[in-house]
Amino acid sequence: MKILVVHGPNLNMLGSRQVAVYGDKTLNEIDSLLQKRARELGVELETLQSNHEGALVDFIQEKSPEAAGIIINPGALTHYGLSLRDALADTSLPVIEVHLSNIHAREEFRQQSVIAPIARGQISGLGWRGYIAALEIIATPEA
Length: 143
Hints:
Blueprint: E1 2-7, H1 19-22, H2 27-41, E2 44-49, H3 53-63, E3 69-73, H4 82-91, E4 95-99, E5 121-124, H5 129-139
Parallel strand pairs: 1-2, 1-3, 3-4, 4-5
Helix pairs in contact: 2-5, 3-4
């Protein structure tokens, strides 16, 4: 089983960007923790971070035929990334939307997600652990 992990704009700055909001782990550290848990679960991960919506769309379109699910932190694209939303919806794969901070407790514009309506679920406010929860949910077949 292969799961795609998609990181949107500015997530490459984790560890130094607003540590009080996003935590002190770098994106490489989060990806390493995900890879470790994926090995324990017997699944393969393929990850991409980009600050460009088109690159994220291209990755999803290219890699989704071999994938069983998608974990995505769309970053700011959460609120307006309609081409990203369409690419995710077109895959018909289970999608888990992850946010390090609790977007529902932040500024009003951050509380709206164009991704949530097409996602299986949204994990918000659990920091890097939200990625692990999303991985476990997608990797565990429903009974």
